[in-house]
Design a protein that fits this description.
By secondary structure, the protein is of the alpha/beta class. Helices cover about 30% and strands about 20% of the residues. Strand 8, helix 3 and strand 9 form a beta-alpha-beta unit.
Length: about 280
């Protein structure tokens, strides 16, 4: 089962987005949601152990308490979509005994203890992955990140690589020089990955992003390459504390020259760091 606060969206025609289990209860959830839409009333329903639906069981043997909230207020929907687009945290307050959901700007904690009869469901901005570099590893990492719906941006001096990124959702920028920092824009939910084989491209770009908010910065290269990188960054005025925050060698497991394996190792470390930073990324 998914974590507290995970949600599905169900339309009045039966279409839905997201899941709350491994597929055990989704059809029943959609049917219940359609009935909630018809009545216009919020409700809480248990599925699995202790549920009135005795023919719907979870293989794990557990139970899920699911809140069904008809969304009548278009302003709540518009505010939520604007916050997602603007990459700002927000919450939805769900009154369990009925009533409309409320939009809460800037708050992102999920609290299902409901001492006052209201559950608060937090929404952090999804991880944004900024990849700077050249070579096959850039394309592999960008493709893998898009498969789990991350926001992805790629900056590279390799115009052929940029042109070969077929996903229109990937933002690209052609780096014209190692000093081209014009398109670097990070927030605290951004992970930056450097995949340059020519490390002369790194210093000014890395110095720029180290001064911006982010939750992860990793760089390709072995320990000897990183030692040279540390010296160059020190000469550029970067503090020891900032340099120590760099993940290098990059990834959860090392010594892989295969682009796809490197991408998997790196993306795993990025998502791990996102959760360790106190955020949650749980695809709907």
């Amino acid at each position: 089962m998914r974590g507290p606060g995970t949600h599905m969206g169900v339309c009045s025609d039966g279409r839905f987005e997201g899941s709350l289990s491994g597929g055990c209860i989704e059809n029943a959830v959609v049917a219940e949601a359609l009935d909630a839409l018809k009545t216009g009333q919020a409700r809480m329903v248990r599925f699995g152990a202790g549920s009135p639906y005795i023919d719907i069981k979870l293989p794990c043997g557990g139970g899920l308490d699911i809140h069904f909230q008809p969304l009548h207020d278009r302003a709540v929907i518009d505010a939520s979509l604007a916050a997602i687009e603007g990459r700002t945290p927000f919450s939805l307050a769900l009154p369990l005994e009925g009533g409309n959901a409320d939009f809460i700007s800037g708050r992102s904690d999920t609290d299902t203890s409901v001492p006052d009869g209201t559950a608060t469901i937090g929404h952090w901005p999804e991880p944004k992955l900024l990849i700077l570099g050249h070579g096959a590893g850039v394309a592999s990492l960008a493709r893998l990140a898009r498969q789990i719906d991350l926001t992805v941006a790629v900056q590279s001096p390799d115009t052929a690589l940029l042109a070969g990124l077929s996903d229109p959702e990937i933002a690209t920028h052609h780096l014209t020089a190692p000093s081209d920092v014009s398109a670097l824009d990070c927030d605290r939910w951004t992970a930056i990955v450097f995949l340059f084989h020519d490390h002369d491209w790194e210093t000014e770009l890395m110095a720029k992003v180290l001064g911006q908010p982010h939750f992860y910065l990793g760089a390709m290269g072995g320990r000897k390459a990183h030692a040279v990188r540390v010296v160059a960054l020190g000469h550029a005025g970067i503090s020891d504390q900032q340099i120590a925050s760099i993940h290098a060698p990059i990834g959860l497991f090392h010594s892989s020259r295969d682009p796809d394996t490197l991408a998997l190792s790196t993306l795993g470390q990025v998502i791990q760091s996102y959760h360790e930073a106190g955020f949650t990324y749980d695809r709907a």
